[in-house]
Hints:
The protein is 48% helix and 18% strand. The chain is of the alpha+beta class and 393 residues long. Helix 2 (37-54) packs across helix 5, helix 7 crosses helix 8 (153-176) and helix 8 runs antiparallel to helix 9. The termini are far apart.
Amino acid sequence: MTASSGSSPAPGSPRLQRMQERFERLIERVRPWSWLWPPIAFAAGLGSFFLVDRQQWLGALLALGMLLAWLLLLSESLIRRFLARRGYPTLSSGVTTFFAQMIHQETLFFCLPFLLATTAWASGQALFTLLLLAMAVFSILDPLYYRLADRQRWLYFAFHAQCVFLVVLVTLPLLLHLTTGQSLKLALAAMVLFSLPSLLHLIRPRRLRGWLALMALVGMLAALAWVGRVWVPPANLWITATALSPGFDAEDREPRDTLRLTPGSLQASGLYAYTAIRAPRGLREEIFHVWRHEGEAIDRIPLVIEGGRDQGYRAWSHKQNFPERVEGRWRIDVMTDSGQRIGVLRFTVGEENGTLADGRIQSPPGLPGLDWQRLIPDQGQADPEDAPATGER
């Protein structure tokens, strides 16, 4: 019995062969224009970054498109095996590598705006973001990329695992409103999982000793990834403004007064630290103001923020209990619960060279000044020991 004209072509049929050849010729025609893809991916990431509050559905749609592309790439080898076993023609390795390159470029350039905006450049996070930049540049250098894919498979799979890490880190807070810490843990787990092909190509275990070495390397990789999490920028949280002030206007909810930070003035009035942190709509997250004196942590004050405001969620911490030896360099690290730094405020305490805290809002370049308002629940004055929920210590 012959197949009717409307049925699907049989495996190995000339019709399927012609379809495959046409598709590969189409890819060859598109390839010279592939240089357009990185700027398109960067524009998509930039659009998602700025539209995450005003057009939440669009940012989520772009992120969902990223994840669907990755699911297709991750299942590519399974699809090829399925078709080969049934006699269907499969695409050449050059074509599949081209698709992988396009998805890697999409990943790196889509995530680039998020990491550039959230990196604390005076910390180890700069190394992570510079690594991302180097990977993005590498992905558009065809000779180097294809040489890596053909000759250094273990390193190519490591490159792939890093891209998986970025996809999970950036997209899950947009799609599922997971906290930064939850997304980071899932991203680390995904990176370790997709590093297995790289380790298998590197070790090629055949006996028990080889498998034990593989498991040891996986454990070591997971431990190093967890320790290095502090170098990963909080891809969906960034500071839009900060302020230091000796006073607080309870009626207008604004910082007030001017004070030269000397030991006597701090012991008498304490110090307010204000931060405005922007986050995706629907995201509720606990952050911390970690007060440090000469590098040593003195206080860790929890604050809860919520996403959705263009100007950022405004919160404050008020420190009143200063040590006897208060002179020197101070900084306030704004941290996530997973140990990632969102930003930092610095000041110096001294009899003559103390920092001037005048209550003015300091906005990063290009961001407008903000009218301050405390958005955490109003509470009466309390002793420092009894008021951790109000941001006071």
